Amino acid sequence: MAANVDKWIEVNIHLEHGCRMDQILLGPIKNIINEIVKEYDVKSWHYLRESCPLLRVPEIRLRFYASAEKMPDIKKALEGLLTDVSIPEPHFGAHGKPGEEYKGEVDGFKERGWPIMMKLLQNGSETALEFLRGEPRGNSEKPWEFYVIRGMHLILNQIGIQETIVPLTNGKWYVGIEASGEMIRECYPGNFPSS
Question: What is the Cα–Cα distance from 174 to 168, expressed in whole angstroms?
Answer without folding.
Answer: 7
